[in-house]
Amino acid sequence: MQPIRNIAILAHVDAGKTTLSERILFTAGEVRRPGDVEDGLATMDYLPEERERGITIEAGVAHFEWRNIWFNFIDTPGHVDFGAEVDMALSSVEGAILIVSAADGVETQTLSAWKKLRKKGIRTLVYINKLDNPDFSLDETLIAIEEHLGARPVLLSIPEYAQINGATKIASELDVISGTRLIQSEGKEEAKKLSAKDPAAAKLQGAYAEAVEAASEFDDEILSLAMDGEKVPPKTLIRGLAELCASDKYVLCYAGSAKENFGVRSLMTGLSFFLPPPPKFPANCLGEVVRLRHFSDMDEIALSRSMANLSSEKFPSDFEFFRLKASTLEPVQQIVAGDIYALRSPKPLSLGSRLSVKGNVLQNSGTSSEVYDPLLQTHVECIRAEDYTSVEKSLQLLTRMDPSVRITPHPEAGYWVLHTVGEVQLEVVMERLKREFGCDVRAGSPEVMWLERLRKKLGPVENSFQAGPFKVELSLSAKPLSESEKDIRLSGEFLEEAPPEILAGIRSALLESAEVGFLGKGPLVGVEFQIGFFDCEGSVSVPMIKKACSDAVIKLIHASDIVLYEPYMELSLECPAEYAGMLSGDIQSREGKIIEIGGDGIMHSFKAELPLRNLFGYATSVRSGCKGRAQYSIRLLGYRVHNI
Questions:
Q1: For residue 406, what is the enclosing H or E element?
Q2: What would the pLDDT profile of 164-190 be if each residue is shown by its tens digit?
Q3: I need a labelling partner for 567 at 20 to 30 A (CA). Which of 212, 558, 592, 613 fits?
């Protein structure tokens, strides 16, 4: 059976992930010509929103063969708004490529991606991109990798430069393990053996010796050969580097230019050498859902990593499997354990759903280990009242497709509150609602999601609710938890003996009250509600219990009891030096505080802290003010008291 490897590609936004994906497909012969992000022709960016914006939004999946290994690879988003997509991708891979741009070095999202990969123990190869520009330094990038990632780089491919038409350009690539020079032939790299007299031979020998030294820490035979001054054969070195790749001390690096297709072949060969096979899967499991997609003609499709070897006659009833290529589905008659397929199921599935070979859901648990706090909220309503049900269904599916998107329905008022991580994600959700799901909706202006906390301990208050012969009475108190906690807790002696349905009603009422908040700016967090006493007459219904509890909360908590906390962001910005003064002034006008300044006289960089409420429209402001020559990223620092 053909070996399988599943890989993900990660990087900071604009480092070249999709471009590298396209060159890999081209080198493997999967596409006749590589599509360019700049031209809106990238194979992996199949959504119109991706082609228009030139960024990856939804993790694309593609397949290729290299050195008789079947690869599935996932091109993940780099934009911070779509971080949940990265988590979904990493749940189904054995290895990863982390791209570092030689133009910008190790950036915010680069470091974030590296930490995710280390936490999950995923073997990672680094590809140093954009070295077609000789002004960008490979050595400086390697130093930055060691300094910021905390791993010593072992370089396995080296770009060579030459004067071409009066300009210095990347002309070839040295592959360290094979000892060959890779030159361009019809757009692809072709290997040529170096002679001993070639000036590059010494450079190759030096890089090979460094790789041997690093690998000797993980392989006794390599250590013995090196100490005896004997040559370490490439096959033996590969074995040692595979062990090295599993450690946190070193990282294998390939250098080149995805755009010019240099260093890609060496990287692909490294993937075949250094990544482990898929793990052993539990018996009687069919697969696990790692992604949900929507097709207008087929409705919902799940991307699933297979955990079983099955032919079509043994597929569960009404289940269909497909090979996914961009936005095209090709039916398959057999599935192989470890491979990734598109699955059409007769029942709705969730991210993390694990299925039995009979098609039953064994467990439903999200595959994302990260918690993505929604930072924006927007009111969404139907233009036509009769569309409410279809819009509700579409919104529910979108939230299952991306766990960082959430909705709070208000059916009595006919609208929803849509919660998103950032502006770009909000815009994309609204565009997809209209184009992909055919929903005609109206959205209000986005507002920042604040947090509400109690100033002090409150209560107790007493409340009762009666309907005919049925009556509910209770007393309720509340106290704030520490600022590090966001939980809503419930305590009281009564709870130990309370029937499950009464407990469920109380919890539901208190959670719903907290979720809505009291000042309209965000949820109440970090509270412990205490039930002093609870009594009911007759067989009261759960809605009655919820009503009694909700009214008690309204009596207990008032606007004056609330302290507001607002989200503060860290802004990392890089721009040409001539724009530094203008951008610095703009940051300060947005109540920002510059905490770090850097630069080399040509490019200038800032790090600043500022409230999210003042970052609306920042992308447009920076783009127009710097003529598209500046780039930035933001991340949540935390929540701070808002002093009115």
A1: strand 406-410
A2: 888 889 999 999 999 999 998 888 888
A3: 558
